[in-house]
Design goal:
- This protein is of the alpha+beta class.
- The chain has one domain: Orthogonal Bundle (Arc Repressor Mutant, subunit A).
- It is built from three helices and five strands, in the order ββββαααβ.
- Strands 2-3-4 form a three-stranded antiparallel beta sheet, with helices on one face. The chain has a two-stranded antiparallel sheet with strand order 1-5.
- The longest helix has 17 residues.
- The protein is globular and about 40 Å long.
């Protein structure tokens, strides 16, 4: 999995926001705010094209989080990216 070209993460006023280059995708007009764990997952996908298993190991190593909660966070994150046309598989 990886982030489609033209999408990036921006930190503004302490909030992590997904932005889109309008020259790449004129239809994207959503504002998506990311939590600290979602921003971490974003960076894994942006920099490493991570698998779900790699994202799980990353969350477990970085945050004090249970496996069940980490898997749920990953599933929700991936679903939101897919629903908004941000994720390539």
């Amino acid at each position: 999995m990886k982030i489609k070209q033209g999408f990036s993460l921006k930190t503004e006023n302490g909030q992590n926001i997904i932005i889109c280059d309008k020259s790449v995708n004129r239809d994207f007009n959503s504002t998506i705010l990311l939590t600290e764990t979602s921003a971490y997952l974003w960076n894994l996908l942006q920099n490493e094209n991570a698998t779900k298993e790699q994202m799980l190991h990353g969350l477990l190593n970085k945050f004090d989080i249970s496996t069940v909660l980490a898997l749920n966070d990953i599933d929700v994150f991936i679903r939101i990216l897919k629903e908004n046309g941000i994720l390539e598989e």
